[in-house]
């Protein structure tokens, strides 16, 4: 299967769970499982190539001039991580189906999960560092949604914010480091960067690049001092914790360190920074984990500790250390995902994760007990389980590592960390499952159905299988290690076996296990000592730092950005004047060669109307309704001016925008006083008038001199005129520019338009849910209304005209590529038709019949436009490259088919969705209680409109 399809499947599949939500929980989980399974199978189809040592490449040029190409690479390392992401993802999906309650929105959950899965697969398969950075930030955003999935929990929202701030900040630092590497090498392709080790390490910018990249890796993989976010992310549902914090998100930093290992490792800076951070994280987190009473918190800190272990191994810079790191990544993913899911089972059945309220579950939950025991003993490093093998390799590497000139330091700390690791594993088994059965459980514990225990049981099979027969994993781990080492580096000739003789690592392991048992024997005194010891609280420090940064930002921003429009205008004017003076002084001005043309009576009349409406607006600005009418006149005259100067597209766009804007402003002004009070002194108004007049004269002077001169160079319009038809297949140059030559700009604009509409929706929803709601619904109009709210003539006229207007909009859309029109104008025309329905028939009547999810319409528009651009990749063209052809289908004449029409369809849907969502948001605010007006014109219901005299009147809906 194509690498593009493997990456794209989760993203496309993320659209399906929400659509299947109404079909039930099993349908949502089933379609999610199917999408992940398809990507997993597609990955396995590339296994023969990977096993033979080949590197599978896929490349599509997107923006070659910027070095941004959609380039994917599948080698042993990428295959290994993608296998973990998709394989464990399948088990998590099956587990989540039975874990989440009926009150949880399963479609939303699986949508977020697939978005995260796609971003993670994108990271491990990217061959372009800019593309990798995009996927990297997508993991931060999607994990934020997953961690904060239970929005009703304050700790969930706080944990999501903490994770986003920490990992997002690290991601920003990493962007700088990656860009430095790209500048050093002269390419942003990873395959090129990885082949230039000597060039990178000899460059003076190597150390800054290394530090910035490691900041991104350390924040993502929760290395000290950024370790605190991961335990606070445990407020997420257990499937999220099991997925993000065992095999995926926290492993992204480790993956990147492994991917960049050939070019960044082997220097004193790499060794000191990475090894020290990993060693400190390993020991510190292991100690903290032992004294945590929450099951998931214990597992979270144990995860941090094991991530530190892997980081330390990568930091040693040896081939054996890299191999041990890869092996432990595999082992940790299996036993830690099983433990997280088992913790969720205990919480699900016993209704608590507090270890102090548990104990004696061995007889009540025997299946869960077996799963937890095997996984925990593996994490403790007990023989015949996979964790023992990689821990022995870690201890072996530690004995050959010297840090700060002390050969005993790393072995001693590694043994100390392993001791506490064994202790918290023994506590997990003993304090939760052993001991007498209690009679005060919050709920009666029992083993769940197979839907919950089968996924962790499958992982435990790998825990035991690799532990008993490690030779089964040896070829694969060595293949992955070869990809990490890169170049001509030789994979260590180590043997994966249980017994290596009486080596130092064995005695260190025995000391750790025995020490862990002894520590558990004195656990209560140790706990009292821990509770009495002063220690900093990471969350408090984080909140203090965030508050300090916010306070500093306010001090810097408020003097300039204080809400005073005059101040903004002055700053903007100064910048414009300065830029203009610089251009005038340093540039070359063309001589005035054009002659003045006589003004026609029509032009003079239009100019007088424009000036008159503008002056009236200034003089009568306190009358809001009259001001709005005058603004409409100004916009109308500008539209006529565009048409007069042969710019029909601009004229149509300006006119339709004016109509929609006036309607939206009418709705918005409904919540403001009819007249604006006098807000400025006479002196201030005189000053503002002087500034306005000076600005107008300056603009007039600039336009006057510009119109008298020809351009010095060849104007870009000549290129557009020459290539519009042969390059874009259209004779309407304006439309071809929008959907072809500058299609990427247009794509960004419809995204911004959609975001603006969503912000309006969010603001109005906030008002409706807050204390303002009561004031809005009970607000009395400034003046009593006279007459019918919904005149019959208006109602009939709009319903008759609507099909005609929709047909006109469809016609304008189709002709846009060759005649004035297009998706933007057509979208506004259709929006006006629907707006007229709202105005004539009322919000309730219209919204009851137009049950369109306008959020989805915006999303569909952006998606269609994006997919149109992506489609050009499949034919080897850059993003948003259009194509066209001519077909003839009898009895019709020959007509054109252009991919730009699909892009224009996306523009059309985005415009309609944005306008209607904004209108609907304001309309909901405008509804208020009114006992005299019907919201159901031409909808006769005798039982409602003419009830019997003795009938009890039902409560009317507030309108």
Automatic annotation (TrEMBL):
Q: Which GO terms describe its molecular function?
A: antiporter activity
Residues covered by the MrpA C-terminal/MbhE domain: 683-764
Stated membrane topology is: Multi-pass membrane protein
* Span of domain NADH:quinone oxidoreductase/Mrp antiporter transmembrane: 126-403
Location of the MrpA C-terminal/MbhD domain: 610-674
- What GO cellular component term, any one, is given? plasma membrane
Q: Where are the transmembrane segments?
A: 77-97, 109-125, 131-150, 162-185, 205-230, 270-291, 298-320, 326-346, 367-388, 408-429, 450-473, 498-523, 564-587, 599-619, 626-645, 651-669, 689-707, 750-768, 789-814, 820-840, 852-875, 895-919
Q: One biological process GO term for this chain?
A: monoatomic ion transport
Annotated NADH-Ubiquinone oxidoreductase (complex I) chain 5 N-terminal domain ranges read: 63-110
Going by the UniProt record, its keywords in alphabetical order are: Antiport, Cell membrane, Ion transport, Membrane, Transmembrane, Transmembrane helix, Transport
Q: List the subcellular locations.
A: Cell membrane; Membrane
Q: Which residue stretches belong to region Disordered? A: 933-959
Give the main location: membrane
Please give the function described in this protein's UniProt entry. Answer: NDH-1 shuttles electrons from NADH, via FMN and iron-sulfur (Fe-S) centers, to quinones in the respiratory chain. The immediate electron acceptor for the enzyme in this species is believed to be ubiquinone. Couples the redox reaction to proton translocation (for every two electrons transferred, four hydrogen ions are translocated across the cytoplasmic membrane), and thus conserves the redox energy in a proton gradient.
Put simply, this protein is called Monovalent cation/H+ antiporter subunit A
Q: Species name for this entry?
A: Thetidibacter halocola
